[in-house]
Design goal:
82% of the residues lie in helices and 0% in strands. By secondary structure, it is mainly alpha-helical. It has one domain.
Length: 119
């Protein structure tokens, strides 16, 4: 389908610039290739940034988990040490010693024990 130059939409631009069809086609290919290349480059940069961000965040998460585990371990050790001191304190109290002595010497009820201890 051969159209006359005057009926083509780009006829005036072609006449003024002296372009031929192959030059315009080459320019179109250049813009398409440059556009695709820039999109691929931007995609690669975005992927690399996302990958590095994931690695950094994973390292931070590991550090937080280790820190929380260490703090939890210290807390448990302190609580157990405090409970040990409380047991020693209760065991050395005179009322506990009297109750243990009375309980060992004669079998009795809990009411008798409460009276001796002073409850």
């Amino acid at each position: 389908m051969n159209q006359r130059p005057s009926t083509s939409i780009f006829a005036l631009a072609q006449q003024m610039s002296g372009e031929t069809g192959s030059a315009r086609s080459l320019r179109g290919r250049f813009f398409v290739i440059a556009g695709v290349a820039s999109i691929v480059l931007l995609g690669a940069i975005a992927y690399g940034g996302t990958y590095m961000l994931k690695q950094t965040m994973a390292g931070d998460e590991d550090a937080r988990i280790l820190s929380a585990a260490s703090l939890s371990k210290q807390l448990v050790e302190r609580v157990l040490a405090e409970r040990g001191r409380q047991v020693d304190l209760i065991a050395s109290a005179p009322s506990t010693i009297a109750a243990a002595t009375f309980s060992a010497s004669s079998p009795s009820t809990t009411t008798d024990l409460a009276i001796i201890v002073g409850l």
